[in-house]
Design a protein that fits this description.
Rossmann fold
Amino acid sequence: MDKYLLKQKSTLELLDDEPEVVPSDGFTLGVLGSSEASYWNANTMAETINAILEETGKLPTTINLPAKGITSLLIQAWGEKQNIVCKPVDSDWIRLGKKARALQDSRIIKDSSHLLFFVGSRSDYYEKIAIREAKRKVVYTIDAKTKEIVKWVV
């Protein structure tokens, strides 16, 4: 059993796409939002996140995001390429039911200094959270259809 060692590799290592080494000043970005952003591709997602990071002037050391969803996968791939630690937050939908999303979101919000919300057109759930959290944290929202980025100042 000693001759078989299990080595974990990131998604980018498996694809032979080495991450860029970029200095970071240390903040944690939490990403939440609507699934309407799922039609985005890796390039549009990178452009959007880069626009926000240009405003802050630094890269996050950690990105907290939901464990499931295409948007999360795109952001995680971007983060790994930038050599940023990505921490997917899972939720137990079977055991917790509708409470699972709220508990997942509250864990991401609690552990993040900056928040990025993908706001949907059918619900104002994330917009209400963004307004509440803007009193304590740096908060950005992105409209999934227009891709308009808004920094909330309260």
